[in-house]
Specification:
The protein is of the alpha/beta class. It has three domains: about 170 residues, 3-Layer(aba) Sandwich (Rossmann fold); about 80 residues, Serine Threonine Protein Phosphatase 5, Tetratricopeptide repeat; about 140 residues, DNA Cyclobutane Dipyrimidine Photolyase, subunit A, domain 3 (Orthogonal Bundle). α1 links the parallel β2 and β3. α15 packs across α16. The longest helix has 22 residues. The structure holds flavin-adenine dinucleotide. The site of flavin-adenine dinucleotide has 28 residues, from α9, α11, α15 and α17.
């Protein structure tokens, strides 16, 4: 079996009416190794393929922002699958009393279940819990990383340790996923629980979820949006990226992280498009590919192999020791989680970063480091700071609940970094000052954009 695929139960091959692909994370048709694997199984067995996408009301922080983004993608997914002869079912579980067994009902008629291998949030938990309850083979396929996560057997120390390992095998993985062709088209009616999204806002309003977090003002979900942003990035921003990526008001980054998180686009497609454009226009895309491949896949490596993602115990020994030494240092000022959430600190730049998160569901990467470092500086304890950062991401970030989320939040506490110079509160952990932001970036322009 290939490096991307793991069978997570011991069920033997069995008969069934179709192969079921359960899109937990990679909610896309193109460039999806898991869907391609499911299509191969279907073709080998002479069966049709059914793509199932669920959306429950009961996961932590389910709110209008996440629901809207996911539902916006549904009609396009349906259209694309229909053209290919693949069945599609979408089931939004609107209230806790609605049936919660749709996956099991579908699996009971399937010859095999294929899903996404993803280390965090719901998919991580479901892939640990569900397979033993399924009587047919249950496969998890890694379609999130370019070099499969399974290629790295140990937790990597930092970017400099994973980089050479990625480089060694990158060429063999940097190849498009072959287009999917199903031999047997789906002809059965759509399952009766399927819901046509119709009016997205109306469907979202009918769900028992937190309606206090509004949809993003900036990001609309779906494959078309992701493709549009990728095109704009390669054609207008790639050439500016290395020079302006750390200047938030220059808007030179790709803004693709929400689409990557919800799987509307793959990092593989982005890397291929960027490389092709760079080659054709004599551009150097190394800095972008470093973020997209090395940094992102380092985050997946950590999320997959670390025992904990939400604890300071996951940090390297030097960081744990230095933070313990400084945990009782005096902080002045200190803010509560509610004050951070409402963006009411004394620091206009920090408040603007939080307002960007509240409004759009994302913070620019450079200021996001500053955002995290200041929460450490102004929280009563280090563990409290970690909890606040995770809470704010889980609740508001469209690219949150991702391997990148927990890994980068822990980066603020020293993960994948090196010791710096001793100072209060941070000990040897890297510090960031407002004066540095003022010197290196146009702070005023950014504050104006996030009033
Ligand atoms: C405290 C903190 C929290 C963060 N939380 C998240 C999060 O919840 N989700 C998330 O995707 N990223 C997170 N990041 C990493 C980074 O800030 C975002 O990936 C980036 O800002 C996304 O914007 P972009 O798509 O325009 O990035 P680009 O600069 O266009 O980069 C393209 C892609 O490369 C990847 N990438 C870029 N920077 C990093 C990085 N430092 N580490 C890993 N991958 C990277 C992302 O997938 C990104 O979409 C966090 C960083 C910090 C410091």
């Amino acid at each position: 079996m290939n490096e991307r695929v793991r069978q997570l139960n011991n069920a033997p091959a069995s008969n069934g009416k179709y192969i079921l692909y359960w899109a937990q994370v990679n909610r896309r048709v193109e460039s999806n190794h898991a869907l391609a694997f499911a299509a191969d199984l279907a073709n080998q067995r002479g069966l049709p393929l059914l793509f199932y996408e669920g959306l429950t009301c009961s996961y932590p922080f389910a709110n209008d922002r996440f629901h809207t983004f996911m539902i916006e993608a549904v009609p396009e997914t349906f259209r694309r699958l229909a053209r290919m002869g693949i069945g599609y079912a979408f089931y939004p579980r609107r209230k806790p009393s609605d049936p919660n067994d749709v996956l099991y009902r579908l699996a009971a008629e399937a010859a095999a279940v294929v899903t996404d291998d993803f280390p965090t949030f719901l998919a991580g938990a479901y892939n640990a819990r569900v397979p033993k309850k399924i009587r047919v083979p249950y496969y998890a396929v890694d379609s999130s990383c370019i070099v499969p996560m399974a290629h790295f057997v140990k937790q990597e120390w930092a970017a400099y340790t994973i980089r050479p390992k990625i480089r060694k095998v990158l060429a063999e993985h940097l190849r498009p996923v072959p287009p999917i062709r199903v031999a047997k088209r789906w002809t059965a009616p759509v399952p009766d629980f399927h819901v046509e999204p119709g009016d997205v806002a109306k469907l979202v309003a009918s769900c028992e979820i937190d309606h206090s977090v509004p949809p993003s003002t900036e990001f609309r979900g779906g494959r078309k949006e992701a493709e549009k942003r990728l095109k704009k990035f390669v054609e207008t921003n790639l050439r500016r990226y290395s020079r302006h990526k750390n200047e938030p008001s220059a808007h030179a980054t790709s803004e693709l992280s929400p689409y990557l998180h919800f799987g509307h686009i793959s990092s593989l497609e982005i890397a291929l498009a960027v490389k092709e454009y760079a080659a054709g226009h004599r551009l150097i895309a190394d800095e972008f590919l470093e973020e997209l491949i090395v940094r992102r896949e380092l985050a997946f490596n950590f999320a997959r192999l670390s025992k904990k993602l939400d604890s300071l115990d996951a940090l390297p020994d030097w960081a744990q020791a230095t933070l313990r030494k400084h945990d009782r240092d005096k902080r002045d000022p200190t803010y509560t989680c509610a004050q951070f959430e409402r963006a009411v600190t004394h620091d206009a730049l920090w408040n603007a970063t939080q307002r960007e998160l509240l409004r759009t569901g994302k913070i620019h990467g450079y200021y996001r480091m500053y955002w995290g470092k200041k929460i450490i500086e102004w929280s009563a304890t280090h563990a409290g700071a970690l909890a606040i950062m995770i809470y704010l991401h889980d609740k508001y970030a469209l690219d949150g609940r991702d391997p990148n989320t927990y890994t980068n939040i822990l980066w603020c506490f020293g993960l994948h970094d090196r010791p710096w110079f001793e100072r209060p509160i941070f000990g040897l952990v890297r510090y960031m000052a407002l004066s540095g932001m003022q010197r290196k970036t146009d702070v005023d322009a950014y504050i104006r954009e996030n009033p």
